[in-house]
Amino acid sequence: MSFAFQKPARKFAWALTLGVALLGACASMAPAPASVADGVLVGPNGMTLYTFDKDAADSGKSVCNGPCATNWPPLMAAESDKSTGAYSVITRDDGKKQWAIKGKPLYYWAKDTKPGDKTGDGFNKVWQVAKP
Fold first, then answer.
1. pLDDT tens, 62-88?
2. Rg of the Cα trace of the chain?
3. Ramachandran angles phi, psi of 18, nearest 5°
C-alpha cells in the first residue's frame, strides 16, 4: 500500500472513532426524570408530580417520611442517577435516593388515579403541582 492511501485511511479511522465516541456519549446521557404535560411535571408513569412547601430548597433533604411518604410517594432515583440540569438527587432519611427540581424534592400523590389528575394541588395549602 502506498503512502497516498494511508493518510485517507487514517483520517477515516479517526473520524469513525470520533463518531462512535460521540454516539456513545449521547447514548449514556440519562433522560430527565420528569417531563411536562399540561404545564406541570409528570413522572415516567405520566402521573403528576408535586412539591412540599415544608421542604427547604437546596437542603438535600425531604421532610416527608413515614406515613407522609405513604400518601406522597417520592419520585425515586437509582443509586447510579446523577444530577442533570435543574434536577438533582437527594438522599432520604432511609438512605434511598429521590429526585428534586430546583432543589425541591418531587412526589406523587397517592389519591391521583390516572395521568392528568392533579387532586393533590393545594392540599393543606402546602402541596403544589411541580412546575418546570
1. 999 999 999 999 999 999 999 999 999
2. 22
3. -60, -45
